[in-house]
Amino acid sequence: MTETARSHTPSETARYTKKGLKIERIFSTEGVHPYDEITWERRDVVQTNWKTGETVFEQLGVEFPDFWSLNASTIVTTKYFRGAVGTPERERGLKQLIDRVVSTYVKAGREHGYFASAADAEVFEHELTWLLANQYFSFNSPVWFNVGTTAPQQVSACFILSVDDSMDSILNWYKEEGFIFKGGSGAGLNLSRIRSSKELLSSGGTASGPVSFMRGADASAGTIKSGGATRRAAKMVVLDVDHPDIEEFVETKWREEDKIRALRDAGYDMDLGGKDITSVQYQNANNSVRVNDEFMRAVENGGEFGLRSRMTGEVIETVDARTLFRKISEAAWACADPGLQYDDTINDWHTNPETGRITASNPCSEYMSLDNSSCNLASLNLLKFLRDDDTFDAPLFAKAVELIITAMDISICFADFPTEPIGETTRNYRQLGIGYANLGALLMAMGLGYDSEGGRAMAATVTSLMTGTSYRRSAELAAIVGPYNGYARNAEAHQRVMRKHQAANDDVRTLHIADAEVHKLATEEWAKVVELGKTNGFRNAQASVLAPTGTIGFMMDCDTTGIEPDFSLVKFKKLVGGGSLQIVNQTIPRALKKLGYDEEKIEAIVAYIGEHGHVVDAPGLKPEHYEVFDTAMGERALKPMGHVLMMAACQPFLSGAISKTVNLPESASIEDIEQIYMESWKLGLKATAIYRDNCKVGQPLADGGGKAKKDAAEAAEADTKVVEKVVEKVVYAPTRKRLPKSRQARTTSFTVAGAEGYMTSGAHDDNSLGEIFLKLGKQGSTLAGVMDAFSIAVSIGLQYGVPLETYVSKFTNLRFEPAGLTDDPDVRMAQSIMDYVFRRLALDYLSFEERSALGIYSADERQRHLETGSYEPVEETGNASELVETAPAAKTTTVEAEVVEVTDEDPLAGAPEVKVAKTTAELLEQITGHAVDSPLCMTCGTKMRPAGSCYVCEGCGSTSGCS
User: Fold this and answer.
1) C-alpha pair distances (Å), 345 with each of 340, 465, 652, 914
2) Which one of 134, 154, 186 terminates a domain?
3) CA–CA gap between residue 187 and residue 378 (Å, rounded)
4) What's the pLDDT score for residue 697?
5) Domain Ribonucleotide reductase class II vitamin B12-dependent N-terminal: where (predicted)?
6) How many CA atoms lie within 13 A of 782 on its CB side?
7) How large a percentage of the chain has pLDDT more than 90?
8) Which of helix, strand or coil describes residue 40?
9) Which residue range is the domain that position 69 belongs to?
10) pLDDT confidence band for 876 (50 / 70 / 90)
11) Is 393 exposed, middle or buried (0-12, 13-18, 19+ CB in 10 A)?
12) Which among 132, 400, 702, 768 counts the fewest CB atoms within 10 Å?
């Protein structure tokens, strides 16, 4: 049943002011509720942990629009629906969720005089509902969690705290941070007010220094995480570059990474989430050094730089600026921390300098404002504003922005905050953070390279239009409901920053008709901003940021998050009813059509991408068009400076900053990092974070190459003279367990993609495997000799105690020709002969529990899973001795098996794989053969992928950050 807007009583209508907003109907249709324009369907949402097979969530019959993907509906159902599952109070569809949120916003707008009439309030309600239901934008997660429920109405995801040089303030920091973590959000703060370990206390003793207090905060964050949170605590710790303890701060995580490496080599479990990782410190925070122009110029010119007392401001120590800058870069090379925040740039664009300086940011570095403040976010789906002729609909985008920024400001009227100081600052300055997602997909669809002048011009104009429209609406709101409370004392500074934005917009050079149209409208908006601001002031101290858009990006079915380029050209898509499908990014055919390719060539190029995961040497694709399809990972990965240049193009048009990590290959040098940090400062960025591939030990990898890559990283450290600690190890001499003279053996014949072979395996008396012999090729051939040598090596390893499951985990999924269909019903597809051999050995010699941990099942077990939902054998009734087989009998003669064609949609096609792709990150690893350095999701165990400076799980929507 469709819900309609309720009628308004005369008393309610009287509350509207004559000065209220007139809301224009743009998206919805007059006389038709937005829900009535959508086709709805019922879906079953079931979520399992792929490691254990355990069902972690189930809700049947939820209602969503038919064009929402299964992934989007799963994430919204599991993350945002309120009420206990199985109770009448549980939300059962998207309509209830949107109505819960929108009705709260509309009610607050009525009560606080935002609308000119009851009819305008109704139009606002329909427009907001239409935009949300059609995936044009989304509020940040706390809105969906809290608004319209009995819980505190917290709408903000980003918080900045404050700590002073007193024990009361430090202990209060611990408490406030804990409450924010408990609520699923993140916080950042600057510790530079705390006196250094080189200064004296009033009692005459020596101060502990900020780094010592970081230990307590880190332990608190880890405890709250392990106490039930579904993700690691998100926090940012900042220290000014002139603090006397800056070198100790820079080295904190660097030293701990050395410790992690040593403990790993000693046999301890140091993976992210491992049982021994808690023995090291400072792992729950991102660290950033706040540098100023004085320091960066000293680095550039090779001068000295003074470290200043926190109490008197006097220089108490002088250091070589280049040496300190080198140390910062070495630490970032070794462990990805610290990042840099550019203090003078940040405060030059600060609209409230009379109130106080900006000293810190939220954990993802996009929100930068006053201490003890918060920001609520919302992001638009840019691809929704692409016309059929592949031009950007700037007027429609501007209409959406002004509606959304109005809703965001209304939320502050009813919002609750974790602490009173945060609430007071936020209500007084009303910081907002509108942003966008799907920039990478938009540029690709328009035929523009992410790392190109055309791509950067388009991104800059869209960002300028967004922020200009936001501030124009903020000035209009100021005329209706008043400017923010702190505006009067900061009016001159605020207007100065508006003029800086306007000047930056004037400096943009457009390169084609599409961005020229956007730029023209942006120019008009900034002119209105400056004019209206002089008369009305502004309702909001801050308007825009570029957030990671992790979970909400999936809610909107975005191909790319935030400002990011496309992660990979091949996607992982869940199918209704179970299973998954590998598909080529659907933006690619549109981009190819835009570039002038006909249907036949598009089909051939798409097929090539589906097989190879990149466009290099794609049939018929011109090399000059390769750049359009560059991605964050893979064969055509973007160069690090390409990311920096895109951030620099958009930064002048943002109130805050940008959540993004500049990813570097493992081979990157310390000099490369120095260059990125220096160029980021020169280009006017507010913050930069880097991540060198595989630089962290506590980072689960998805392939067997992880250990080798770690060893390579350590060798590179030695080459660059980074200090490495040597840990003595105790060496144990293995003992060989020889097979008896007379032993059990089985011979298996097999065919892989038409190539025939034989395998003979011998076992100990306890039925554990002790030797194998492989017969491939003609006697005396090179292949036969290599197989004999390989068989002897594996056999000796088995007899010296190497577990069979170790061989299985290493050699399954090894891909080379011949590869394809086999004649074995238990292993229908093999990526190579080695892949087949060790899957067969696993089925013959490993227990069900050991095999299931590796994802290897027999045909009977897979069939049982389709029928009952479980792979496990079930004991038959009536005869306790008769059990369902857990492994097939060995084949001692040639097997005459029926060859069945396996299609992409066959649910058994991927079942035997040891590492079946659960996300796009894992799929990319399978295609390229290279690991993606991302953590595993703590909720469902699948591999996450980068989203801004955070990570997001495509399986359940969990993020490692604060949005």
Assistant:
1) 12, 22, 10, 50
2) 134
3) 18
4) 64
5) 44-135
6) 0
7) 57
8) strand
9) 1-134
10) very low
11) middle
12) 768
Pick left, alpha or beta for residue 875 (phi over 0 → left; psi -120 to 50 → alpha; otherwise beta). beta
pTM beyond 0.85: the answer is no
Domain-ending residue, one of 74, 105, 134: 134
Query: Out of 320-324, 386-390, 815-819, which region has the weakest mean confidence (pLDDT)?
Result: 815-819
CB-based contacts of 89: which residues, under 8 Å, 6+ apart?
82, 83
Q: DSSP assignment, residue 113?
A: T
CA-closest candidate to residue 716, choices 334, 262, 339 = 334
Split into its structural domains, the chain has a count of 2
- Give the 3-state secondary structure percentages of the chain, helix then strand then coil, rounded to 5: 40, 15, 45
pLDDT, tens only, 263-280 = 888 888 777 666 777 778
- Is 364 catalytic? The answer is yes
Does residue 435 lie within any of the structural domains? Answer: no
- CB atoms under 10 Å from CB of 802, counted, come to 14
pLDDT at position 472 over 70: yes
Question: In 3-state terms, what secondary structure has residue 824?
Answer: strand
Identify the residue whose tokens are 């209706």: 480
What is the H or E stretch that residue 45 is in? strand 40-48
Helices (H), 183-268: 210-226, 246-265
Q: Does residue 128 sit within a domain? A: yes
| CA distances in angstroms from 464 to 451, 469, 524, 616, 649, listed in the order given | 19, 8, 11, 34, 10
Q: Round to whole Å and give the CA distance between 320 and 224.
A: 40
d(CA 736, CA 758): 26
- Does residue 322 carry a pLDDT above 90? yes
Helix, strand counts (H, E) of the chain = 29, 23
In a domain, 228, yes or no: no
Q: Residue 360's CB: how many other CB atoms inside 10 A? A: 29
- Can you name the residues that pair with 751 across neighbouring β-strands? 756
Q: Is the peptide bond before 338 cis (omega within 30 degrees of 0)?
A: yes
By the 8 A CB rule, do 672 and 702 touch? no
- For the record, the structure tokens of 511 come out as 């390169």
Catalytic residue among 176, 366, 476, 805: 366
Spatial separation of the C-alpha atoms in residues 905 and 573, rounded to whole Å: 12
> By three-state DSSP, how is residue 831 classified?
coil
Quick one: which of 661, 681, 663, 662 has its CA closest to 365? 661
Strands 570-574, 137-139: parallel, antiparallel or unpaired by DSSP?
A: unpaired
**Where do we find the tokens 């006097």?**
314
Q: Which positions ≥6 away from 803 have C-beta within 8 Å?
A: none
Is there a catalytic annotation at residue 292? Answer: no
Helix axes 394-414, 513-536, angle to 10 degrees: 40
Beta-carbon contacts of 163 under 8 Å, excluding residues fewer than 6 positions away, are: 169, 170, 172, 173, 189, 190, 191, 193, 194
What length is written for the chain?
963
- Distance between CA atoms of residues 66 and 87, nearest Å: 25
Spell out a b/e string for 854-881, using b for 16 or more CB atoms within 10 Å of the CB, else e: bbbbbbbbbebbeeeeebeeeeeeeeee
Spell out the long-range contacts of 857-866 with Cβ–Cβ below 8 A and sequence spacing 24 or more: 857/911, 857/912, 858/826, 858/885, 858/886, 858/887, 858/888, 859/825, 859/826, 859/828, 859/888, 860/884, 860/885, 860/888, 861/886, 862/908, 862/911, 862/912, 866/907
Catalytic residue among 146, 284, 292, 362: 362
Q: Are 225 and 273 in contact (CB under 8 A)?
A: no
What are the residues whose beta carbons fall under 8 Å from the beta carbon of 634, sequence distance 6 or more? 568, 569, 613, 614, 924, 927, 928
Residue 598 lies in a domain: no
* Residue 960 · residue 362 · CB < 8 Å: no
Is the Cβ–Cβ distance between 808 and 838 less than 8 Å? Answer: yes
pLDDT in tens, 75-101: 999 999 999 999 999 999 999 999 999
Reference 75, options 158, 142, 151, 141; nearest CA is 141
Concerning whether 287 is annotated as a catalytic residue, the answer is no
Residue in the structure block whose two tokens are 């400017």: 483
